Amino acid sequence: MQSGTTGINTIRIYNPIKNSEEHDSEGIFIKKWIPELAEVPVELIHEPWKMNAIEQQFYNCEIGKDYPFPIVDIEETRKYASDIVWSFRKKEDVKVEGKRILNKHVSNPNKPKNARNKKAKPSQ
To answer: How far is CA 22 from the centre of its chain?
Structure first.
């Protein structure tokens, strides 16, 4: 379900910048494991490629030399991935599988109690 491929719940495509800001807001982990960013201030640590030339020089981190340029555009690739996953969720077999998963793992409070607890009898 976390990958968004079961056909139920919402599609989850995690944003690495948002996760970085939420889980390492001060950049402590980043600065420990990426020493090239050690002098970069917190307000730039999560997206160092956005530093201008003067900031790069001042913080001793030249993008493209000391630290790489981004490999992908996060927004563009998020949209691309989202379109692919949503296209699968429109398929009938995915919808059927989603219903099967919901029936198995989600209880319906509107169902009579004896119907929820009743085991299906094997066919003869």
So the answer is: 13
